UniProtKB/TrEMBL annotation:
GO terms for cellular component: SCF ubiquitin ligase complex. Residues 165-211 form the F-box domain. This is F-box/LRR-repeat protein 4 isoform X4. GO terms for biological process: SCF-dependent proteasomal ubiquitin-dependent protein catabolic process. InterPro entries: F-box-like_dom_sf, F-box_dom, Leu-rich_rpt_Cys-con_subtyp, LRR_dom_sf. PROSITE patterns: FBOX. The keyword DNA damage does not apply. Keywords: Ubl conjugation pathway.
């Protein structure tokens, strides 16, 4: 349901906690690097998340700032904030130094903090400000808007007691369903409450083949899954990413939902979901045997990763920052020769990333993209095996320090289809290595040389001149490349976005005095 996306979308988030709970009066964000990405501030109350502030992303230059937007006043204390970001207007990564929460400490903390980390009631109605439509919609509990499907006993005449629908009653059901396909899930739930006729149509299985609950992460609780399962008999795509924080969703509800509605699933995303445990992994394997895409980014605490090797049809697998082991990753790869996209970046429990790379080279000839970011056990021996992957378009070996002694392994890759190459912090890569790459990678569109200190302006000149499809070049922290040269390139190649961190211009400047002594008054 792409129509579920809010007007202001967010791309990622960070949660921060404080020692004491307070009634929030002010939130200050210390933005030291590329400010302007913050779009929402949430506060966790005893049983629900509450929106404190929302705003469009903005570009405000590269000057550090303390951002203190006017926040909504709430009548419950909090010690946990969630900040959401959208980086679309920024030229480079954003960076925060600190988050300051200023507020009034409640007299009786015990009463308010009893359930700060748990949700004792699934039916808590969050505090809303009357008259503010946006806050009313965002703070609404989704499950309260989902009316259960009404089943009329066989032989009993249906009596429509709802309001007259005018011309809608004259339309064929197929026409009304066609209109309803354009509604977001909250609107469908409201339609189901109009009358029995609309309840029947708004509960039709065909409207629930693709469900994206990520925009509603702040209010999706276990009961939502129990209610939706009655409508999701033909469900093919499900996104639960970001949902279930602080016990809002219990694993057994997810297991039951998958058993009831997961048989037809082809795409499943559960990124940053705390409820994913071994029982959920097994339920995925037992019920969703047709999965082609499985995304479990930042899922930790599971030990039965190897059970995923029972899946045989995976084309995309995202395990970024999980605790999957070497043996489990290799087993999954061998079971899925059709795998095209794999992310095992920052998987610290994989003790030998070479074995993973070798398994990819030997079993996945149609591999399109692979992300090894911060895989400290990956060496040139593992990368050599990827030479068998002739369709490779995207490779990230940034911060794979054991592969950074030299860049000779670039000559072993099949790069005829390569579009994106990330070499961040590989200090052994030099001009000679890149020069041999240029004529073999005619489709190269993005090259990340962040921190590759041996490269010079000469090789960058050649890359910009010869790689006609190039659209992004990152030369941040490249010591031998001067700012004046970057300015010249930007004028000469306006179609290429050339990134260079401004750190060298700011290293010798005094810290922002506001950062040194922020006012707590």
């Amino acid at each position: 349901m792409p129509q579920n996306a809010s007007a202001i979308t967010s791309q990622d988030f960070v949660e921060v906690s404080f020692e004491k709970a307070v009634y929030p009066l002010e939130v200050s964000i210390f933005e030291t690097y590329n400010p302007g990405a913050l779009v929402r501030i949430w506060a966790l109350g005893p049983t629900a998340w509450m929106l404190l502030w929302e705003g469009e992303p903005e570009y405000v230059g590269d000057t550090p700032r303390i951002f203190s937007p006017p926040i909504r006043q709430i009548n419950v204390p909090t010690r946990i904030l969630r900040l959401e970001f959208n980086h679309k207007l920024l030229p480079y990564y954003t960076e925060l130094d600190a988050v300051l929460l200023r507020g009034r400490q409640p007299a009786n903390l015990t009463k308010h903090l009893r359930n700060n980390f748990s949700y004792s009631s699934l039916f808590y109605k969050p505090v809303v400000e009357k008259g503010q439509l946006l806050n009313r919609i965002i703070a609404s509990n989704l499950h309260e808007n989902i009316a259960p499907q009404i089943v009329t006993p066989r032989g009993q005449k249906q009596i429509d007691t709802g309001p007259p629908l005018g011309d809608f009653q004259q339309l064929p059901d197929e026409t009304t369903l066609c209109v309803m396909k354009y509604l977001d899930i909250q609107s469908l739930c409201r339609c189901a409450q109009v009358n029995r006729h609309f309840n029947r149509l708004a509960s039709d299985y065909i409207l629930y083949r693709s469900i994206d609950l990520r925009p509603y992460w702040h209010c999706v609780q276990s009961q939502v899954l129990a209610t939706l399962s009655m409508r999701c008999k033909f469900l093919q795509k499900l996104d639960l990413s970001w949902c279930g924080s602080h016990r809002m969703i219990q694993p057994n509800y997810v297991v039951n939902f998958l058993k009831d509605s997961g048989a037809e699933l082809t795409h499943l995303r559960m990124n940053c979901c705390k409820f994913v445990d071994n029982s959920v992994l097994r339920a995925i394997v037992d019920t969703s045997t047709s999965l082609q895409e499985l995304c479990l980014r930042s899922v930790v605490g599971c030990s039965d990763w190897i059970c995923l090797s029972a899946l045989k049809k995976l084309k995309r697998l995202d395990l970024y920052r999980t605790d999957i082991t070497t043996s489990a990753a290799v087993a999954i790869i061998r079971s899925n020769p059709g795998l095209r996209h794999l992310n095992v970046g920052s998987c610290k429990m994989i003790s030998s990333m070479d074995e993973v790379a070798i398994a990819l080279g030997g079993n996945c000839p149609n591999l399109v993209s692979v992300d090894f970011w911060k895989s400290y056990s990956l060496t040139p021996n593992g990368i050599r095996a990827l030479g068998n992957c002739k369709m490779l378009q995207e490779l990230d070996v940034g911060w794979c320090l054991q592969a950074g002694g030299s860049g000779e392994w670039l000559g072993w890759l099949s790069v005829g289809e390569l579009r994106k190459l990330f070499l961040g912090a590989l200090r052994g890569v030099c001009d000679r290595d890149l020069r041999s790459l240029i004529p073999r990678a005619p489709k190269l569109a993005q090259l990340d040389l962040l921190g590759v200190r041996a490269v010079t302006a000469d090789i960058c000149d050649s890359i910009l001149a010869e790689c006609k499809d190039l659209r992004l070049l990152d030369v941040s922290f490249c010591d031998q490349i001067q700012e004046a040269q970057v300015v010249e390139w930007r004028e000469q190649y306006p179609h290429v976005s050339i990134k260079r961190s401004f750190q060298s211009a700011n290293l010798n400047t005094a810290p922002n005095p506001l950062f040194l002594a922020p006012s707590l008054e």
